[in-house]
Design goal:
By secondary structure, the protein is of the alpha+beta class. The protein has a five-stranded antiparallel β-sheet, with helices on one face. The protein is built from three helices and five strands; from the N terminus they run H-E-H-E-E-E-E-H.
């Protein structure tokens, strides 16, 4: 009889109780021109501004734009790559954004 330690790594047990995917950070260095283009693009989505940093909260992750650096934080690599791949769709009308997993920034309201 097999014990639990003898289970192959892709068994149903490991899929149910195995480790969850770790959050992923994709960081991309930008030229001055690329930074300005991303800044103009992300401003359409009403991001949160913290000094010179733009923070865009999406349902699947967060996009942060600082001078020279674009950072995408998501729950897994697939979601982060999808966000990065679809950022250029902010040039389209807002009614089309949800089709690409994009939206206006989901700002959290601060209660007094």
């Amino acid at each position: 009889m097999k014990g639990m330690d003898d289970e192959p790594p892709n068994s149903w047990f490991s899929r149910l109780f195995g480790a969850r995917e770790k959050p992923v950070l994709i960081e991309q260095n930008l030229s001055d021109r690329a930074y300005e283009q991303y800044r103009e693009l992300l401003l359409r989505a009403r991001p949160e501004t913290v000094g010179k940093k733009l923070v865009l909260h999406l349902s699947d992750g967060t996009v942060e734009l600082e001078e020279g650096v674009l950072k995408i934080k998501a729950r897994n690599r697939k979601a982060a790559e999808k966000i990065l791949r679809n950022l250029h769709h902010y040039e389209q009308p807002p009614s089309l954004w949800p089709a690409y997993g994009l939206s206006y920034s989901l700002r959290k309201r601060k209660t007094p």
